[in-house]
Design goal:
heterodimer; A: Rossmann fold; Rossmann fold; 7-stranded mixed beta sheet; globular; B: alpha+beta; Dna Ligase, domain 1; D-amino Acid Aminotransferase, Chain A, domain 1; 6-stranded antiparallel beta sheet; 4-stranded antiparallel beta sheet; 36% helix; 23% strand
């Protein structure tokens, strides 16, 4: 099972012949991802080295291959256009790796792409270990298993997953939802999917300062996920107010986005919050025993 | 700044007071001579609370205008929000309007609903957060669906709900539409008019302008991107951009009372960077900065980042935290050694946490070069804190 992505998901790469797109296509193919082709306008009719066909438009690619998933490696100014093109061609799930898409482009995209799930932008993507990778994560640290993982960050996700894998906790699916203020898929969207996934028996939510996605996640867990233990982590607990730290969305403004409010919300939902990433496996072990 | 915000207001047709932008007292004198009457001299600064700090003056003739302009230009204004002060470099000379009423209107991004939200209150001229606290019923909000866009009924509905005085009714729906156009087309995180003035002779004008633009959207408006380059909002952002990092990839962090923030921090990735700051705090220390070096960690960028962090005299030890991921650990280690082994850097004890592919080989390279390699983030933070406190 897993969520959003399994072994048979047919994936295309938008920007497949670009530097990043080509590099990660090779890595995803090596992991076993079912990449059925890619798109680079003007290079339609050619093939990449490993044999997958290149198309001029997403429409052509979908018609020829039946692709349902797309991963997007385009510059920020082309991000919204790429997402709209994917939606128009009938793609069901688009992972947008691109960092730096204007927030107002994303406001418009999110409001006009009903029916297509967007992961990101500014995210490391999606992996269902042992099945498929549609992202830029270092696949060797992941292991097939039953922990669902959701995170707003890239390297912090790797830090936590590395710890889980070393402690023997494999993962069903890991979703990097992205660090921008306006993103397609939120914690709650992922939690809803994980709640009904029989393969996922426990969850790790790695949030950070800024916004109210973590508070919403806590409320959802309290209400809808009584049967699967959840452990949380909040990055940036020592951050001062008003400073934007790396991620466009990671800023405490006024009284919203504070770590105190997020920790409190999780605790009220019965979710233990780790003080440091290295504590997560041990908190998970405790939660699973209950 | 205000004068730039008003420039944007005029581009979309939002009425602003008449006046001129001036950088010298002579310009102020010349303008008032040509346009006799009562004028307001408003200091153009980024900080809040400029009125209380003495940054706004009134002049009734050219000579008085000149004298006041000489006083203001070059003066350092201090306020509670900005105790260090900010030097006044320019003024906005504006007509003095006869105020009948003051309202407040803003548009910002609501992250939870992923929609722009309009906020209106009839209690203008005050801090809106204070209004929200003391009289929450006076705050009226409307979420606009970006797919449908703005329509004048939204403005009418808000004006009635917020009980704006009758004089506002005719102008408000069009004005809010213009503000929405500005918000979407120029990519603003915030557009705010406070106060939106109703004058005694029935005009509705934006007496102040506050606009915060999304850096990611600035490429669409090269002329405005230029404003930012001329006046970086913040020293840290300017320093980050100068060495080739993203604008928000570096931030200096404050001391905590008597406790000095003396651990320099470099990490790859924003989340890991924040996690590293937290780890330093958990180990009993305080991070002097946040720095996200991004993927790859190339030698040149490592060196520039190291120099930026150690340019802060508080820094007594450095903790570089790299989660290898796709990048090979031995390559990262070589990059760090290459960057920092030379004599032209300020030497502080350097702890490097390295993990990922070939991390062991990487740690051996670091050890040989005299740096302190560690395997985990917690261990690295603890070592760096101990070294900053004088341990060997």
């Amino acid at each position: 099972m897993a969520i959003f992505l399994d072994k048979n998901s047919k994936v295309i790469v938008q920007g497949i012949t670009g530097r990043e797109g080509a590099f990660h296509t090779t890595r995803m193919l090596a992991y076993g991802t079912n990449i059925v082709g890619g798109v680079t306008p003007g290079k339609g009719g050619t093939k990449i080295e490993s044999g997958q066909p290149v198309f001029d438009t997403v429409k052509d690619a979908v018609e020829a291959t039946g692709a349902t998933h797309s991963i997007i490696f385009v510059p920020p100014f082309a991000g919204a256009d790429a997402l709209w093109e994917a939606h128009d061609a009938g793609i069901q799930l688009a992972v947008c790796i691109t960092e730096g898409i204007p927030a107002h482009d994303m406001l418009r995209v999110v409001a006009t792409t009903a029916g297509m799930r967007i992961i990101g932008g500014n995210c490391p993507g999606l992996i269902s270990p042992g099945k498929s990778l549609v992202g830029i994560m270092p696949s060797q640290i992941f292991k097939e298993g039953n922990v669902g993982m959701i995170s707003r960050s890239g390297t912090l996700t790797y830090e936590i997953v590395d710890g889980l894998t070393r402690a023997g906790y494999g993962q069903s699916t890991c979703v990097g939802i992205g660090g921008d203020p306006i993103i397609g898929t939120t914690f709650v969207d992922c939690l809803r999917a994980f709640a009904s996934d029989p393969e996922t028996t426990a969850l790790v939510v790695a949030g950070e300062i800024g916004g109210s996605d973590e508070e919403d996640a806590a409320a959802f867990i309290k209400e809808h996920i009584p049967d699967k233990p959840v452990v949380a982590f909040i990055g940036g607990r020592s951050a001062p107010k008003g400073k934007r730290l790396g991620h466009a969305g990671a800023i405490i403004s006024g009284n919203t986005g504070t770590p105190e409010s997020k920790v409190k919300a999780f605790n009220e939902a019965g979710v233990p919050v780790a003080d440091r990433p290295s504590q997560i496996p041990e908190l998970l072990a405790k939660a699973l025993k209950r | 700044m205000e004068y730039q915000g008003k420039d944007l207001f005029r581009r979309v047709g939002i009425p602003t007071p008449s006046g001129v932008y001036a950088t010298t007292a002579d310009e102020v004198k010349a303008y008032i001579s040509a346009h006799p009457g009562s004028w307001v001299l408003k200091s153009q600064v980024m900080m809040g609370g400029r009125g209380k700090a003495g940054g706004i003056k009134f002049a009734d003739d050219a000579a008085q205008g000149e004298t006041l302009a000489r006083e203001l230009i070059g003066k350092v204004l201090k306020s509670i929000q900005n105790p260090d002060g900010e030097e006044v470099k320019s003024l906005l000379v504006e007509e003095k309007v006869d105020i009948a009423s003051e309202a407040y209107v803003s548009i910002t991004i609501d992250r939870a609903t992923k929609q722009p939200v309009v906020i209106v209150t009839s209690q203008g001229g005050m801090d809106v957060e204070e209004v929200a606290e003391h009289d929450p019923g006076a705050i009226h909000k409307y979420w606009i669906d970006p797919a449908a866009g703005y329509s004048p009924y939204i403005g009418r509905q808000l004006a009635f709900a917020a009980k704006l005085p009758d004089g506002y009714r005719k102008a408000f729906p069009g004005l809010l539409g213009a503000l929405y156009t500005l918000f979407m087309d120029y990519g603003a995180n915030l557009v705010e008019i406070n106060p939106l003035v109703l004058t005694k002779n029935g005009r509705v004008i934006a007496s102040d302008a506050k606009i915060d633009l999304d850096d990611n959207g600035l490429y669409k408006h090269p002329d405005i991107a230029q404003w930012n380059k001329a006046q970086p909002a913040d020293e840290d952002q300017a320093a980050a951009v100068a060495i080739g990092l993203g604008m928000s990839n570096y931030a200096k962090l404050p001391d905590d009372g008597a406790k000095i923030a003396n651990i320099g921090v470099i990490a790859n990735g924003a989340g890991l960077g924040m996690g590293t700051m937290d780890a330093v705090k958990n180990a009993g220390g305080l991070a002097a900065n946040f720095l996200d070096i991004g993927g790859g960690a190339q030698a040149e960028l490592v060196k520039k980042s190291y120099n930026l962090v150690t340019s802060d005299p508080r820094v007594k030890a450095m903790f570089i935290n790299i989660f290898g991921g796709i990048t090979r650990g031995d390559q990262v280690a070589k990059g760090i050694v290459e960057a920092l082994a030379g004599g032209d850097v300020r030497k502080v004890p350097l702890v490097v946490r390295l993990t990922g592919t070939n991390a062991e080989e990487g740690r051996a390279i670091l050890d040989k070069a005299g740096f302190i390699p560690v395997e985990t983030m917690d261990e690295g933070a603890a070592r760096a804190v101990a070294l900053a406190n004088g341990a060997n």
